[in-house]
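Section 3.1: Structural characterization of target chains.
Under the original work plan, the team committed to producing a structural model for every single-chain target entering the pipeline before any wet-lab resources were allocated. The record below documents one such target. The sequence was received from the expression subgroup and is listed exactly as submitted; it comprises 325 residues.
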Amino acid sequence: MAVPCVRVDREAGERTRARLAEADLIDETHEIVSAEGSLYIPVSDPDAVPDSFEVVERSVPRRETQTTPADLLDFTPSYERLGDVVIIDEDDPTRAEQLAEAIVASDIPCETVLNRASKIQGERRVRDWELLYGDRTEAIHREYGYEFAVDLADVYFSPRLATERHRVVEQVAPEEHAFDMFAGVGPFAIPMAGHGAEVVATDINDVAIEYCRENARRNGVAERVTAIHGDVREIAPDYAGWGDRIVMNLPHSADEFLDTAVELAGEECVLHYYDIQHEDDPFGPGTRAIREAADDYEVTVETERVVRSYAPHEYNVVLDVRLSR
């Protein structure tokens, strides 16, 4: 059966494999194949593979030593991993129990199985979970060489945004002032500090900020990360005109914070603005809102990018916008 694979020249194979492994994107249930001077590296989530890689469909052998949940079920399961926590999304209780049992019986490293029990809700952006196996909701997630502790019961975190976070972090220069307005446990803030930036990370969720501080220590960048609990609109006056780079990853309501972002912006600033919009005009509303808020700046849209599908006919998008006073 054909599976999604990254095709790369054999000479770049190990470098590519290591990069995909850092992002936890390698499909460990299938073998890496060499043919016609190329390596074919099976990947678990083709949508999360960086655009710089070529993804193709290819028949590759299944690893005989691995037992997957699909081997034990009479349906094709869907799940995602966060460290040794496996997340499923099943409305049918019987099907959820069957999937949890198959995951535990498989060769997937697993200490916990969680079933989504609600949508993301509230000011703290958390959801309810049904614990199907194990006794904890905390995980250690590894992404592009960084390590993040996260408790899914108390904070929001999406491993599916790893490639997007890496794309932004690769733009960061040493000594930049970077401000993450909705930082969570630090998946933008900490790698930016790792690239040499001085980072201020704010979040209204006090548990998320505690994890952000812990993760900064865990990754050896605590001296370059200032993590502050509170509403960014109240914190911004202390950092007015400070930011060289601002991350606004609050896609449902980032437009409500654009005046605050402009207050934080320095003479020259790059804004990473995340939005949810209809496919008919995914970038227009955000662009217009930024131009209206930043009327003291020359506004240049440098990147328009669809991050992922969000719902039927709706996209999660990002705008990289340069503000020049």
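The chain is about 20% helix and 35% strand.
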